[in-house]
Design goal:
heterodimer, A: two-stranded antiparallel sheet, 6 helices, 2 strands, 6% strand, disordered C terminus, B: 3 domains
Amino acid sequence: MATVVPAPPRTAVPGYVGLVTRAIAFGMDAALINLVAIAIAAIVALTFSVLSLPKDLHTVAVAAGGALYVVWTVGYFVTFWATTGQTPGCRAMHIRVRPTHGERLLPRRALLRFIGLILAALPLFAGYLLILVDDRRRGLQDRIARTVVVEHDGAISAGPPSAR
Amino acid sequence: MRLSTVADPLGVFGRAARAARHGAGVAVDRTEIAAIDLLGRALASSRAEEALDVVLRSPLADRAVRSVVDGPLIDAAVQTAVERGVVERISAELIASGAADHVIDQLLASDELWHVVDEIARSPSVTEAITQQSFGFADQVAGEVGRRSRRADDRLERAARRLLRRHDAPLHPEPS
C-alpha cells in the first residue's frame, strides 16, 4: 500500500509590490505632506497678514517657507524609510521598503532613494515604469538605493492564484 | 300515609319554620346594610385617616407587605396578567388614547432625557465601541483598496509584458 505523503502546509510568501499599489501609497503620502504644509502655510500667512512687514522680509519668508517645504518632504520620506520602512501611506497599503540585503534601510540610502525618486520622475516618469518589467518590481529609485518594496506582515492577498 | 301528616295535620310547624327562616333572612339583610352604612360613615370620618396612618406605621403593615412580596401572590398576578393579555390590552389602550405620544413628547422636551443621552454617549464603553467600529471600517476599506490595487498591479504588469513581448516572468518571487 502506497504511503500518502501529506502536502506541506502552504505558507504566505511575502511578495514584491507593483506599480498601482505603490502609486496609491505615494498619493496618500503626498496628500498628507501637502495637508500639513498647507495648514502651516495658512497659519503663517494669517500671522503675516496682521503684521506690516517690509517687502524684502516677505520675500525672505517665502523663500524660507519653500526651503522648509523641501526639508519637510525629504525628512518625511527619509525618516520613515530609515526607521520603520513604512510611510503612513505604505502602512495603509500594508507594504514596506527594505534594502535588498538586510532589514533596516540606512538614512544615507534612504536619502539616495529619495533622490532616485525625483530622477525617476524626470524622464516623463519612465523611471517608475521599470517596476512593470523588473522581476523584483524595482523602479529606478530602488535600483539606485538597492531597495525593494515588499508586502508587510498581514499583507492583503490579491485574490485566488488565477487572478494573479 | 306520611309521618308529618300524622304529627302535624295542619302544617303549623312547617309554616313556623318558614316564617322563622324569612325573619332571619330579613334580619341578616338589615344587619348587612347597617354594617355597610357604618363602614361608609367610618371611612368618611376624619378619624379614619388617623386610623389608617396608625395601621400603616405599625409592624403589622410591614409584615403584610413582606408576606405579599415574598409570597406567590405577585407572581400569580403577573402570570395571570400575561396569560390574559392584560399588558397588550393596556399598551394598546395607551397608544390609542394618545397618552403614549403625550408621554414621549414630554420626555423629549425634558432636559433630563438629553442629560441621560449625553451621559451615555460620553460613557467609555460607548466611545470605545464607536472607535472600534470606525477602525474596523477603515481597515475594511483599506483592505478592499489593497486587494483591488494588487489585482491592478498584476494586470498592468501582464499588459506591459505583452506589449514588450517579454516572457511572463513570475510576478512574486520570494525576496532574498
